[in-house]
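TICKET #2291
ISSUE: user wants both folds in one file
ATTACHMENT 1:
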Amino acid sequence: MLRSRDTNIIKLTTFILAILCHYQFAFGQVDSDNGLFTADYASGCAPLTVNVSPTEPSEADGFIYEFNGNFAGIVEDESYEYTEPGIYTIAYIKNAGASDPETDFLTITILPAGTSPQFDIFTCKNNEILIDFSRDENFENFTIRYGDGSSPEAVNSPQTQVRHTYSIIPNPINIVVEGNNNTAGDAGNCPTVTEGVNLISGGLTQADFTEVITENYSSSDGRITLNFNLQDNNIYRLYQSTSTNGFSELDTITGTETSRTVTSLNTAANTYCFRVDAYDACDNTFVQSVNACNLRITGQATNAQNQISWVTSTTPLSNLAIYRDGNLFDDVSPATNTGSWNDTDLTCNQDYVYFAETFYAGTNDLNGFSMTSNTVTLTALFNEPLPATSNLIADINIDESISLTWTSPDPKYDYQILKSTNNSKLVPIDRVNVEQYTDEATDLDFINCYSVRTADNCGNFSKNDPVICPTILDGEFIVSSGTADLQWTEYISEEYSVVDYEVQYLDQDYNLLETLYAGQDLSIIEKPVNIVQRAYLRIKILLSDGSIVYSNLVPADLSPAVIHPTAFTPNGDMLNDEITFFGRFISNYNIYLYNRWGEFIKELDNNNPTWNGIVKGEEVESGTYVYVIEGVTETGAPFNQKGSITLIR
């Protein structure tokens, strides 16, 4: 048991803590710093149990374990388990109760669980290997067992490479490597590594390319896949050249690999060549492969032709095969490193997917290899002039839709309809395959103009097609007088002139009753002679080619009524001495006249519709007189009308 701690022990502990802080990152040994104790491990992998033993034990001995900034106390235990990676210090106190005890220290390095040696084994010709430890950061030295019955070999830092030649070749060859620190066996709880090796009994085997595939066309994300046959027990190095600018090493490849994809390439601008060289690490010699370069294609769609261009730096080549939509389409022989090919067997607006494949025709590769390009998608274009339409005319229908008709020199085409509203730009509104069109989305408050151009399925249109603007009739039919006050827009045609504008007065069935005007004017004020109750007004336009088109209709309806002057002057001057009531669309009617006091004074009818201002032989005085009319319309419907007239003497 430890004695009671007194002031000396407290001072000693403080002293030990200071020293521990100094030593906790020092690289330790199996023997303690001053030789007062030993440990079976100074390093190892977690979890690691370290056993310590004083060289001259005394009753007052003690240890402080796992000091890493925290004081854990002095104990007599001579064993401690470290569970977490890190660098620790064991402190030993001899004669702990003495006023001047002896102290000693040992640094313990704990590696993460499962830490094993890191190394590379290279096979060399004539049954020799080279082991390279340069990438290991955890162990000071290594023990190698070559698996051929020879004695284990120790490799000490800073030596990082060791060579070994096999005279007896066991089958298989398994090389075992153990990592150590300080002395052999230290860190012995860390796992060893066993690696199988196939020796090269003779010389190196050249790499045999089978395919070079350009996976995609990209300025930053291009990818090229290399397929090859390698000798299993060889080590190979992969080299890359960009547009013949010289080769640089990319990576080391084991002989068991059959494919490698190189990424982040600019396949849109560059071609790339590759070598896979068999490598002898022992004497740093190589057996070079052939230069295998990728095949890159670009494409351009022109009028009725898709052009494919290719480039590769591989030489010599055999034929070059062109594939379209996944199928072999054509063959170029002999193939050149750069060239182009044209596809004219096309349908417009159809997408075509192309790629090319060529073959190495030299003798430097063992079996030859193919080069497959990226894919290119082109949409076939056909740019050709189309014949313009002609004989375009425009009619406004009864429902105020506008009908267009035209002729085309070739009915195989479609027709695109363009429209302008109030002098705006002509814009497409529809597409048809017949030589007529009706625009139902019209607003006759605006000027509507049209053009029709020929169109095909390849995006081509005719040019300089005629523009036409139908005549729009506006104005009113004055009910009180039955007078037409009309104005209309000019009929605009780039092909025909207007011979005549004819103003037509039509019945309710659109039959012509009367022509009110014929000429070049664009407005009239005219009154039909034979007025009907339901009627319409319309412009008939005669064109220079003999065609006739029409404007919209304006209603000219008149309701049944009794028409009369508003005043008369029965003063004997023979001017306006009487007032007459005229019935319009009324078969029979009676007129009852009343004075301003509401007294009935006179009755008239359709047979006697005139009054001279005399009642019972006496002239009535000036003033306003009210009338009430009762009758029957021409259709037999009851009719009533009230109003007033003014008598002036």
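ATTACHMENT 2:
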Amino acid sequence: MIMANLRNRLLAGMAFCACVTATPALAQDANEGTNEIIVTAQRREQTLQEVPLSLTVVGEQQLERQAALSLADYTKLVPGLNVQAQDAGIVRIVLRGANTGSVGSTVASYIDDMPFGSSGSLINAGTAAADFDPFDVARIEVLRGPQGTLYGSNSLGGVLKYVTNLPSTAAFEARAQTGVEAVAGGGTGFSGNAMINVPLGDTLAVRASGFYRERPGFIDSVGFNVKNANASKSYGGRASLLFAPTDNFSIRLQSVLQNIDGGTPSSFDIDPVSHKPYNAAAGGVQTGERTRFVLYPDGYDIRYRLFAGTLEWDFGGATLSSITSHSKQTYQSVTDASTNALRATINAFYAPTAPNTVGFVFVNNQQVKKFTQELRLASSDSETFEWTVGGYYTKEKTRLYQTYIPFQLSSRQLMPTRLTVGGVTFEDFVISYINASYEELAGFATGTLHLGDRFDITAGGRYSHNRQESEQAVIQLGVGSANTGKSSQGVFTWSVSPRFELSDHASVYARVAKGFRPGGPNLIPLGAPADFPSQFKADTIISYEAGLRAETADRSFTFDGSIFYLDWKNILIATTVNTPTGPVGVNGNGQKARSQGVELAVTARPTAGLTVMINGAYTDAKLLQDTVPASGGLNLTGGLKGDRLPYVPEFAATISVDYDWEISAGAKAYVGANVRLVSDQPGTFSAAYRAAYGRAPEIDGYKTVDLRAGVNFERFNLSVFANNLTNTYALSSLGSAFTAAPSAIGGSNVNYLTAAGIRPRTIGASVGVSF
């Protein structure tokens, strides 16, 4: 049990220890002749055991064996990682419980050394995590706890880092794969991908890969009557050119393109109490099938674009790195909103003589354009002192545009948004938008002092200053106006990590670190009082952690464990402020929350070919005060002191067993299984749910079973899998607002919720070839 005074114990006397959680047998970057894994978590190449922080590495082979295709699939592989997922690309990442459901992200996403996604909190970045396809990714590194010193803003919960394969001048290489999958109660999908690496001489090489995936749907649209309406497809590729004229100088150019096209969202209607599927078109009959009541075809598309150049020059004693990147992320969606509370108002304006003949869709467009430049100077490896210093600059522009568009229920044809009221013509019923810019300049330094052969201390600091400007507006029937806002904030983050090697095969460490998420400007409405909050502050986390890593000399048994306490202040929330014209919604700062827990990973190899792994986390994350801003306002968020933080199960664990054996010369086979256990977890804070049922919303726990098997020949491979073998029904996210289908258009007036769930039983197979 985690004691309430955990933080004090960590500071007062707990042994310095190190926890690096990994899967050494399956990770891909190993030194020749050893199983040591090379990682870049501290912006320099190190073996895993040298890194003084809590880190999980998931290698390319493990991703493929586990059929892990998206962020929602990684949760079973990483202790302390939770994902609130609705669809590919519409995902919130939660590490160590750092989540209040706000608009900003608490986990920073990187591709190699390039940050991706918005640094600000004015573009709903919290639910737009970078969900890149993992084909031809060397590994995924997940750094838990604040990483503000080296990774800057939005890393107060941790960092998710995709490390791509480098082009190689050593030899020609190519491989291709194709696969098929079917989901219980739904459709069938297929995939294809290919990679090629071509040396263009001794100093130049190019590597390119492409993929296409169709994921089958399993949710039916009722009202519009479409089967498997949440089917989606994703496609894209990566290209990389490496020029290395000498051993100490290289230039790498790379590009990443990915498209995600989806139909109706993978959320479905549920009963608010039992959480069973709810069929609104059939008067609430619970058939067990997942359905979504819509009267207009939903759809969304997401585009990722990233272009980058990396220069590295080792001039003796130190290496200079320059990383330049430009990225663009867009999200566009059309969602039927005919069942929300505005339906009567929409009909009164657009069909005053024929009520309940008009529906409406919600249009949501988001765009992030981001430029980054980092210069970094790192010393060579040293037995006494190693250091890294650098500077970072980013400038991004974001645009959020939202509106409602009416349509005829009979024909499902969109209608003009222009309408005339009292002789006055308006172009739109309502529009809202935020055009914003974010500019940040930072400097950082970190160093590792080796005090003897077995003890070292790593410490660092970073000062970041950001300036933001925004134009924000909410205009309904011509009422409202655009307002500009500005903010300027500076934050200093730091970390200290002593590490002691007990032996050649065991080490302990302690780490104290600070991370932050930027604040920003607010919309100032007409008639706002003088004390209206013109901006919201940065929220910060200070983390205290300690752990132990140990293994036997033959690596037949490894243990990684950590214990942590997060002290979270000025938590970012949504709230309202009263004005003479009524309450206005703004971003605001709550007060305090905390998260504490234990994470561990144990690997045993009792006999040749057999690997048993157990990873799990216990997390106790809760509010220390109501989600009411210290500056005043309404508790729009709906959280009360003592409430657990959203989408953080107290307990989650995965037990994995794999067996590999040689079936003939040049042919190896494997079989494996996972058992995933997840305890009950809270849903989104919801004042409406608490008012209706007297308690906070909660999602039931669940367990799943996955199976896999395959054969690898010299050039060919075949694999099969069955994920969620028992077809467990479980939710992954829960809506916070009730809705009701109007009875006049074939629905029910009984309130229900929307929710997203884990995928039903999915069975698939793939075949591949390599050269």
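RESOLUTION: both attachments delivered.
EXTRA DETAIL ON ATTACHMENT 2: Helices lie at 6-12, 60-65, 71-74, 148-151, 343-350, 687-693.
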